C-alpha cells in the first residue's frame, strides 16, 4: 500500500507573495491614504498589515509566539513599503524553506495549526489582500485568477459563513451575480463589497 505524498503549499504561497509584492511595489505615496475594502484600513494600514503578517509567519515558523507581533507594522517611510515587504518576505521564506516546518505545529494569533495548513491559510490571505490593494489602486487586471479560485475554495474551509459576525475579520457574505469573476466572488464571500 502506498501513501500519497502530503501537499506542499509553498509553491502557491510563493505565487501569492509574488502577486502581493507586485501590488505593494506599485503603490505610490499619493495612494497611501486611499480607502481599501478592508474595514478600518486605508492603503498605508493595509501595507502595514501585510508586512506584519510576514513577521508573524517568521516568528511562528521560528517557534515563537506570533501574537506578540502587532497587526499593523508602523514607522515605514512612504517610499519604503516595497523594501519592507521584500525584507520581511525574505525572512519568512527562509524560516519556511525546510520541509520539516510543514508538519510542525505552529502557534498563530488565531489558531494552532500544522505548518502546511498555516501556509495555505496565509496564501489565501495574501491573495485576498492583493485584491484589496488592487481594488483600492485600480490595478485589478493584474491578478492571478488561479490564486483567486484557490482562495475562494480555501476560505470556504477556514472562514465558513455560519461562523461570522460583524465583529470578526470577515463580514457576512455579500450577494453577487453568478457570472462574476473569481476575485469579485472571493471579495463578496469575505464580506467585502466589490
TrEMBL record:
- Molecular function in Gene Ontology: metal ion binding
Q: What is the top-level taxon of the source organism?
A: Bacteria
Boundaries of every Mycothiol-dependent maleylpyruvate isomerase metal-binding domain copy: 16-134
Q: What is this protein called?
A: TIGR03086 family protein
At the highest ranks, the source species' classification is: Bacteria, Bacillati, Actinomycetota, Actinomycetes, Kitasatosporales
